[in-house]
Design goal:
386 residues, alpha/beta, Ribulose 1,5 Bisphosphate Carboxylase/Oxygenase, Rossmann fold, four-stranded parallel β-sheet, 12 helices, ribosomal protein, ribonucleoprotein, Ribosomal_uL1/biogenesis, Ribosomal_uL1-like
Length: 386
């Protein structure tokens, strides 16, 4: 029931700019990174051995390399659900400061069959050696299903590699094959397009999937330079995993970033989300925070209104309240009339039972016997003997 007599909210002026406050993002990034580093330093001082929390598994002894590399997440809360179902194919947003720039990165690539065609591409002399040295495993989709059926084998595969890339032709089928071991971690496969794309007059030509062959010589993979460029693009992007919820979290940095690097990534990711992935864009954004794995969420943007469209705002609340009251009065009137009608119907149906003649005679006989007994009781025994 609406009890207010005035408007529920006040509309904002049209054309209100929606953008991040650079000073707020900088302050939040500085405070978050400072706290994460101080927290890690405290843990290292109190522990007897070196802490191995995070994603940095490098065994480097250099002093400038941090002993821990914890992820930094951007959490965007929306007013309405972003999508109506889970999207198994994640999106990508290119960021200026990559999360996968380590030269000792272990990359596993899952390809569509045949896998030999992709291995030949990686071994090609034109393929960048700086990238091929980081690709430690290439496996086809068929062999993936055959070799990694058990839970333990999937856990071992997950622990052996830092990043997983997958051919976008099979990315939606990997959820069943890899299971929750992968999809509950931060190492979900990132899609890459490595298929040969044929274009005519600048338009992509659709291929007949029924005529696809398993012959390696007819494999439809792109050239080594195109494949290398696609892999680099995926490594320098933030993955966007959308679900039917009002919260979306993206890994946008690490604790080894500087405040300026984290700030730049935040701006690019927010622009990418609101411009491509979030329905209604900024109008649907409720709040934006950044946080570490064990830290509080630092707010960097909060919405001043809780509605998405102007149609969601009730204007004539007083009129609506009077209408509701009148409707309730009519309902009460109808209910009272129905009660009277029901009572009248019950009275009309109720009738007296017919009087039986035998019962009347019996009652008359009992009355006479009672009167006679009373007369006999009042007469004294001496009077009867006389």
């Amino acid at each position: 029931m609406v009890s207010a007599t005035g408007p529920l909210t006040t509309k904002v002026a049209s054309g209100t700019p929606y953008q991040l406050d650079n000073n707020q993002v900088q302050r939040a990034s500085t405070a978050l990174l400072k706290y994460m580093k101080s927290q890690q330093k405290e843990l290292e001082e109190t522990s007897t051995k070196k802490t191995l929390i995070g994603d940095n598994d490098d065994s480097s002894d250099e002093e400038d390399v941090p002993s821990v590399n914890e992820p930094v997440w951007l959490v965007m809360t929306t007013k309405k659900h972003v999508v109506d179902k889970n999207r198994l194919k994640p999106g990508k947003i290119s960021i200026p400061h990559s999360l996968n720039s380590s030269p000792s990165l272990n990359i596993c690539i899952i390809t569509a069959d045949p896998q030999r065609a992709f291995k030949d591409i990686v071994a090609d002399p034109s393929f960048p050696s700086t990238l091929s040295s980081r690709i430690t495993k290439v496996i086809g989709f068929t062999k993936l299903k055959q070799r990694y059926k058990s839970f333990e084998s999937r856990r071992q595969l997950l622990s052996e590699h830092d990043v997983f890339l997958a051919d976008d032709r099979i990315i939606t089928r990997l959820a069943v094959t890899l299971g929750k071991t992968f999809y509950k971690s931060s190492k979900r496969p990132i899609p890459i397009r490595i298929e040969q794309v044929d274009k005519v007059d600048g338009k992509r030509v659709k291929k007949d999937t029924k005529k696809s062959s398993k012959d390696e010589s007819n494999a439809t993979f792109a050239s080594p330079l195109v494949v290398a460029k696609e892999i680099e693009k995926a490594l320098n992007s933030a993955s966007v995993h959308l679900a039917p919820a009002a919260t979306t979290a993206l890994r946008i940095g690490t604790s080894s970033f500087t405040p300026d690097q984290l700030t730049e990534n935040v701006k690019v990711v927010v622009d990418g989300l609101t411009g491509k992935f979030i329905t209604k864009g900024w109008r649907n954004v409720k709040a934006i925070h950044i946080k570490g794995p064990t830290t509080m969420a630092m707010p960097i943007w909060l919405a001043s209104e809780l509605w998405v469209d102007e149609t969601d705002v009730l204007e004539n609340v007083e009129k609506d309240t009077n209408q509701i009251e009148s409707e309730k009065g009519e309902k009460r009137k109808i209910t009272a009339e129905e009660d009277v009608q029901q009572k009248t119907t019950k009275k009309s149906k109720k009738s007296k039972a017919p009087v039986d003649e035998d019962d009347t005679a019996r009652n008359e006989k009992l009355r006479k016997q009672k009167a006679k007994a009373l007369d006999d009781g009042t007469t004294s025994p001496s009077a009867k003997r006389k």
